[in-house]
Amino acid sequence: MLKTTLDVRTIPPAQRHPLIFGTFEDLQAGEQFQLVNDHDPKPLYYQFSAERQGEFTWEYVEQGPQIWRVNIGRVK
Predict the structure, then answer these.
(1) Which of 28, 44, 47, 67 minimizes the number of CB atoms within 10 Å of its CB?
(2) Helices (H), 1-76
(3) Homologous superfamily in CATH for domain 2-74
(4) What separation in angstroms does the CA of 58 have from each of 8, 25, 44, 49, 73?
């Protein structure tokens, strides 16, 4: 179930990952949010993989060239 959309395009880069992880922490199991970004958030995926292995889902909805949308879900 999609809970919210988080558009980080206007957020300063240093504040993006803490905001995204905070949004993730607010999810219940089975919920997801949609991240909207101005570039491929691949480094964020690697950070999720390192810190939340097995706890998240990652599904690209739109892949550029100007907007990327990713549904990020909480498994447990």
Answers:
(1) 28
(2) 13-25, 42-51
(3) TusA-like domain (3.30.110.40)
(4) 17, 15, 10, 10, 7
Confidence label for 1 from pLDDT (cuts 50, 70 and 90): confident
How many degrees, rounded to 5, is the angle at CA 13 between CA 9 and CA 14?
145
Q: Is 71 within 8 Å of 61 (Cβ atoms)?
A: yes
The whole-number pLDDT of residue 76 equals 79
Q: Residue 2 pLDDT > 90, yes or no?
A: no
Spatial distance between the Cα atoms of 50 and 52, rounded to a whole number of angstroms: 6
